[in-house]
Amino acid sequence: MNTIGKPTTVVLSAEEIAGIVARLGAEISRDYEGRHPVLISLLKGGVIFLADLIRQVTIPHHIEFLQVSSYNGSTASSGRVKILNDLQVSIEGRHVLIVEDVVDTGMTLAYIVEVLKLRNPASLEICALLRKRIASPAGIPLRYLGREIPDQFVVGYGLDYRENFRHLPFIAAWEPDPTR
Ligand code: PRP
């Protein structure tokens, strides 16, 4: 039984997300024409976004997955990024686009960008669905951004609270009950 409740304060509806994803897919298709990019999804949160995004990308491309973790089940970034599962292919000479669900402190992306740069891709850019407005962002340049949101914990559309709520078709604010 699910005893942790249900988020109700919608930050982005399914319809709004679909519109954003369509726009991003069109921009990527235009910019990467003839470059056969590899889109790298950061698991687990980025998987829903990637699945929808690639169906809006009309040019040939590959997909890859990188599993990293920084929250460790908490609602605040731990500041320590770990690679749990690495890419299955070399990205040397490839045009790489990292597909990320949410940029909070930016520490995850800062770390991943440094790691992937060492593998000599032809280019390396980031597409993020959400960026939180926080006091001290890491300043990672995002080539593509879906939407800026207030600095609050959000779940749904791949984003979780202790592995829950990833399945929700919308994105909602969530304040965990510390007694549960
Ligand atoms: C979350 C989120 C981003 C990252 C953002 O992942 O999906 O990858 O944290 O935080 P940052 O900008 O402060 O680094 P999480 O570590 O929770 O793993 P998950 O995707 O498996 O849920």
Q: What spatial form do the alpha-carbon principal axes imply?
A: globular
Percent of residues in helices comes to 10-25%
Q: What hetero molecules are in the model?
A: 1-O-pyrophosphono-5-O-phosphono-alpha-D-ribofuranose
For the terminal residues, how far apart are their CA atoms?
13 Å
Main β sheet profile = 6 strands, mixed
Q: How much is the radius of gyration in Å?
A: 16 Å
Strand content: 25-35%
Mean pLDDT: 90
Number of strands: 9
Q: Helices and strands, in N-to-C order? A: EHEHEEEHEEEE
> How many helices?
3
Q: How are the strands of the biggest sheet laid out side by side?
A: 4-3-2-5-6-7
Uncertain segments are none
The SS-based structural class is: alpha/beta
Tag the structure with descriptive keywords.
alpha/beta, globular
Would you give an account of this structure?
Helix content is 21%, strand content 29%. With 180 residues, the protein is of the alpha/beta class. Strand 5, helix 3 (107-117) and strand 6 form a beta-alpha-beta unit. It is built from 3 helices and 9 strands; from the N terminus they run βαβαβββαββββ. The chain starts with 8 loop residues before the first strand and ends in a 7-residue tail after the last strand. It is globular and about 50 Å long. The protein has a 6-stranded mixed beta sheet with strand order 4-3-2-5-6-7, sandwiched between helices. A 3-stranded antiparallel beta sheet has the order 1-9-8.
